[in-house]
Amino acid sequence: GGETRRYNKGALRHIIPLRMRPLQYAVVAYVRNPVGRFVEALRREVYPQHGHLPAHITLLPPRCLNGAEETALETLGQICATVEPFEVSMSEVESFIPVTPTVFIRVEETVKLRELHDLLNAGIFRCEEQWQYRPHLTIVKLATDQQAQAAIEISRQRWQGFSGPRAITVDELTFVREGPDNRWIDLAPIPLGRSLASQARE
Q1: Which long-range contacts (CB under 8 A, 24 or more apart) does 193-198 make?
Q2: What are the C-alpha distances in Å from 45 to residues 34, 112, 155, 194?
Q3: Is pLDDT larger for residue 151 or for residue 21?
Q4: What pLDDT does 194 receive?
Q5: What is the tally of helices (H) and strands (E) in the chain?
Q6: Percentage of residues in the chain with pLDDT exceeding 90?
Q7: Backbone torsion region of residue 193, taken as left when φ is above 0, otherwise alpha when ψ lies between -120 and 50, otherwise beta
Q8: Structure pTM?
Q9: Radius of gyration of the chain (CA)
């Protein structure tokens, strides 16, 4: 009996913190045009372990919600209905070294993305973010600066050879929740400039 109790207590100590940790949520704009496909192919080349991640620009980095998931979705729909779709152009390959070993393509004009981020980062989504918001299209986040430096070189060569249009239309955001194994679960796509109610009627 005593042995069993000790085992169960030990097991629970490992299980409970994982279950009780609040879920993280984020808001992203998936990039499904030639630029997005380029980034996904490049990611598979330089870091196959993250080859499953879809190309996206983050509007709200991961955070806990200050309320219910359903309320957050409703709020997101209300905000997005007031914002018209817009276009951004992609600039050069850069990195966040030495802060993090992340390689990305910089967004040329950031005003509209920053305004949308600031609109969203309030109320139920309000969070003191770890870093200042810098809109970017992540190519890959690596383990070390050395790996990131190598990825920058390859990425710059590939990006230089990319002949397609470098513009991205932001016309839909996606509300996502963290899942297991470094994966995120899509909860709902939210169109810009249209209410969810009018979308449902179509």
Answers
A1: 193/80, 193/81, 193/83, 193/84, 193/85, 194/81, 195/77, 195/78, 195/81, 196/77, 196/81
A2: 17, 31, 10, 37
A3: 151
A4: 75
A5: 6, 8
A6: 74
A7: left
A8: 0.84
A9: 20
DSSP 19: H
- Residue 47 near residue 142 (C-beta atoms within 8 A): yes
pLDDT digits (tens, 9 = 90+) for 126-160: 999 888 999 999 999 999 999 999 999 999 999 99
Rounded Cα distance between 53 and 77, Å, is: 24
Q: Which amino acid is at 83?
A: V
For residue 198, the model assigns a pLDDT of 54
pLDDT digits (tens, 9 = 90+) for 66-84: 999 999 999 999 999 999 9
pLDDT digits (tens, 9 = 90+) for 23-61: 999 999 999 999 999 999 999 999 988 888 899 999 999
Measure Cα distances from 168 to 34, 113, 136, 184 in Å.
9, 12, 12, 22
SS (H, E, C) 129-191: CCCCCCCEEEEEECCCHHHHHHHHHHHHHHHHCCCCCCEEEECEEEEEEECCCCCEEEEEEEE
List the end-to-end C-alpha distance of the chain, in Å, as a whole number: 63
Which helix (DSSP H) or strand (DSSP E) does residue 197 occupy? helix 196-201
> Which residue in the block uniquely carries the two structure tokens 């409970």?
16
Q: How far apart are CA 105 and CA 72, in angstroms?
A: 29
